[in-house]
């Protein structure tokens, strides 16, 4: 029996995927628990419409992310930090602090989107990557000053 998955099921299928499975498994587990629907003309049409809508939404979100990327990459974000002997920075600048600075400048970014291997703990310019959407990654300049 062919089914269309309407929920992700690890090891079996993802949303929108069409698979051939055994009849009993389809009826007694997948369909009964709401993971899949039987492949019929009506369900196939509904599935194709859902895929088209998802592609349109995906394209819109990608365009929005590219616009935000352009605006982000034009700016340099400056952090004043306390330094000690030999210009050593006390503490460091974390993703949360970067997120707060971005919000002050009008950008709504979640700290989980900020890709930072380590906290920034030296004076000067640093490149920081921000994953805005699937394939859209902005590289911003962060400057630490005294």
Annotate the secondary structure layout:
Layout lengths: L1 E4 L12 E3 L2 H9 L4 E3 L2 H33 L2 E5 L14 H10 L9 E2 L8 E10 L2 E10 L1
Parallel strand pairs: 4-7
Antiparallel strand pairs: 1-2, 1-3, 5-6, 6-7
Instruction: Compute the number of helices.
Output: 3
Helix/sheet category? alpha+beta
Between the first and last Cα atoms, what is the distance in angstroms? 68 Å
Residue stretches low in confidence (pLDDT < 50, at least 5 long) are none
Strand content range: 25-35%
Q: Sketch the major β-sheet.
A: 4 strands, mixed
Backbone CA Rg: 24 Å
* DSSP helix fraction: 25-40%
- What is the quaternary state of this protein? single chain
Shape: elongated
Strand order, sheet with most strands: 4-7-6-5
Number of strands: 7
Describe the structure in your own words.
With 146 residues, the chain is of the alpha+beta class. It has 3 helices and 7 strands, in the order E-E-H-E-H-E-H-E-E-E. The strands form 2 sheets. A 4-stranded mixed β-sheet has the order 4-7-6-5. The longest helix is centred in the middle third of the chain and has 33 residues, at 41-73. It is elongated. The model has no long low-confidence stretch (mean pLDDT 92).
């Amino acid at each position: 029996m062919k089914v269309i998955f309407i929920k992700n099921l690890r090891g079996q299928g993802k949303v929108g995927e069409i698979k051939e499975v055994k009849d009993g498994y389809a009826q007694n587990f997948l369909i009964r628990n709401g993971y899949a629907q039987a492949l019929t003309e009506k369900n196939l049409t509904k599935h194709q419409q859902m895929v088209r809508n998802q592609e349109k939404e995906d394209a819109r979100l990608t365009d929005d992310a590219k616009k935000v990327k352009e605006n982000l990459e034009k700016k340099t974000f400056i952090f004043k930090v306390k330094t000690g002997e030999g210009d050593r920075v006390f503490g460091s600048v974390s993703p949360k602090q970067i997120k707060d600075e971005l919000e002050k400048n009008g950008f709504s970014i979640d700290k989980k989107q900020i890709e930072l291997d380590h906290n920034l703990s030296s004076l000067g310019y640093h490149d920081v990557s921000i994953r805005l959407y699937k394939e859209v990654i902005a590289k911003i300049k962060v400057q630490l000053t005294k």
